[in-house]
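Duplicate of #3305? Posting structure anyway:
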């Protein structure tokens, strides 16, 4: 099982709306995440907009590719892109660069 952690930056003026959107993620998106191997997926948001994502999956590349193939993800990424800083034209899911794990207490 891979543990994956990534960082993104939510625009300060969109924090409340970002929280609202994630309080009511559509069932179709939740089902797609589960079907493509995303497990124990959490997002943590700091008041300055720093977003920390964490998930577990058998194969992160395959999990990302599986989501990329879904129509619900295409819609979600298009809707979410304006919430983020510094995407340089990429979708949010394309900007999820995993951090290097340096310690894990098993």
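Output from current build:
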């Amino acid at each position: 099982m891979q543990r994956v952690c990534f960082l993104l930056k939510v625009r300060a003026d969109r924090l409340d709306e970002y929280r609202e959107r994630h309080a009511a993620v559509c069932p179709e998106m939740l089902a797609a995440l589960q079907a493509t191997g995303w497990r124990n997926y959490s997002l943590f948001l700091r008041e300055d907009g720093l977003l920390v994502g964490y998930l577990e999956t058998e194969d992160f590349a395959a999990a990302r590719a599986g989501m990329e193939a879904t129509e619900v993800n295409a819609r979600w990424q298009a809707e979410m892109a304006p919430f983020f800083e510094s995407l340089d034209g990429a979708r949010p899911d394309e900007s999820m660069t995993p951090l290097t794990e340096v310690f894990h207490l098993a």
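Confirmed duplicate; merging threads. The helical segments are 15-23, 27-35, 60-68, 71-80. The chain has one domain: 2-95.
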